[in-house]
Amino acid sequence: MAENPGMPVRPSGRLLRAPEHFLSPAQIAEVTAGRRGFLRGAFAAALAGTGGVAAAQGTGDANILELPAHTKGLGQPVATHGYGQPSQYERNLQRRESPGLTRVSAASVSFAPLQGMFGIITPNGLHFERHHQGWWDIDPSKHRLMINGLVKNPLVFTMDDLMRLPSVSRMHFIECGANTGMEWGNVAVPTVQYTHGMLSCCEFTGVALSTLLDMAGYDKKAGKYILVEGADGSSMTRTVAMERALDDCMVAYAMNGEMLRPENGYPLRMVAPGIQGVSWVKWLRRIEVGDMPYGTKDETLHYVDLMPDGLHRQYTSIQECKSVITSPSGGQTLLDKGFHNITGLAWSGRGKIRRVDVSTDGGRNWRTAKLESPILSKCLTRFNFGWVWDGGPAILQSRAIDDTGYVQPKINQLRAVRGTRSIYHNNAIQSWRVAEGGEVSNVQVY
Ligand SMILES: Nc1nc2c(c(=O)[nH]1)N[C@H]1C(S)=C(S)[C@@H](COP(=O)(O)O)O[C@H]1N2
Ligand SMILES: [Mo]
Fold it and tell me: Which atom of ligand 1 lies closest to the CA of 276?
């Protein structure tokens, strides 16, 4: 069964360890310097009433009393570059690579800067990237999608053909199965960008896979699986159970209102809601209908979970319920005691988020956070939680519960079942330690 998490396969004998030192001190400094100076004095003080309030601080403030050039002069004409760019003051918000994560190539993963993002939608320029063999900007007029295998009418579509078909738009998260993988071993990863940044969420537009499979006349009896194949050199091929393919999978050409970006699979990618990122095959060129799981290299050598008994779990495709506090998070500093908005993201590959609890004392006490709308199935959900920091040490955690009733586990609960030698599918509760000086760092609480 394609989705059976308990199915053991033979151990490959290969053991990937988390590197001892994930980032050099210089790299950590680069990541944490120039971070948002969030909740600087005035706001926090106004809310918590600790010392001078905002109005009093305004007295004699040159930023108020002296009219700046932008108030007196003529601004710039419409942007000449035609495609808008962020403010120059937001230049630090970038996807970043993390040295040491993979040995495949220097630039095979870039992480989304979750600590500086708002709401639930990932801007296209900040969507994480994972390439097994680099990315391409493919000419859409030459790109084809073939549907073959156990079908009555094998079909080949051009992009123009696909874009004439009935289209659907839906919001979903995509998470690499290896997201948070470093935490199995240690807490060397300093920021939420690196612990959880192989995660993004977009509105995808494309054609429902069920539409295409119906057009091809797939074999309703024998056709139990599909194989999705990419056009890049990585031979990226993944099995998806027919049930799921017909349920909510789609072939997408657009994200967040514009055509896909080349690094995210332009002109066509698989969208497999709730399933780990590797099955969201980019530069999608072929879908084959078959009667059994294909057992490709990315389903036997990679993307299997090494268990304590030395066996591998295979086809653990679904991204289980998970959450993380994105601010305050590792590498940031609380600049003042008083009110702070704890905010983060929750998601589940099985449906909607029902509840998120937040603890500020390392899991002894939990209180329910406020979920922002919309709350959609297999989509990120934003939570907020008001907290008054007394200036002392604290440990911040979030714990998500999805609409199946599943509760996000603690790291030691996960390790008790899965051991410590896994890479994939770490959905444990994340802990951020706040030191007396306000510095926030990555810790594990058992
Ligand atoms: N053709 C192809 N599809 C691919 C990959 C790839 O290397 N080649 N990488 C996969 C992996 S492992 C992930 S996590 C997601 C990442 O999608 P993104 O780069 O759009 O974030 O794409 C998947 N689809
Ligand atoms: Mo991935």
Answer: 14
Instruction: Indicate which residue's Cα is closest to atom 12 of ligand 1.
Output: 278
Q: Nearest 5°: phi and psi at 146?
A: -105, 140
What residue type is assigned to position 29 of the chain? A
Q: Which long-range contacts (CB under 8 A, 24 or more apart) does 428-431 make?
A: 428/180, 428/183, 429/323, 429/363, 429/397, 429/398, 429/399, 430/180, 430/183, 430/192, 430/195, 430/196, 430/323, 430/324, 430/325, 430/397, 430/398, 431/362, 431/363, 431/395, 431/396, 431/397
Q: Is 162 in the pocket of ligand 1 (CB under 6 A)?
A: no
62-100: per-residue pLDDT in tens?
A: 999 999 999 999 998 887 779 999 999 999 999 998 766
Q: Quick check: CB of 286 below 6 Å from ligand 1? A: no
Q: Which residues surround ligand 2, an ion (CB under 5 A)?
A: 130, 176, 277-278
155, 146 in Cβ contact below 8 A? yes
Residue ranges of domains in the chain, CATH in brackets? 129-313 (3.90.420.10)
Using CA atoms, how far apart are residues 78 and 151, in angstroms rounded to an integer? 52
* Tokens 């979970």 -> residue: 305
Query: Closest-lying ligand to the alpha carbon of 107?
Result: 1
Distance CA 244, CA 226 (A): 10
What pLDDT digit, counting tens, does each position of 277-329 carry? 999 999 999 999 999 999 999 999 889 999 999 999 988 899 999 999 999 99
Give the residue among 285, 305, 272 at the shortest CA–CA distance from 174: 272
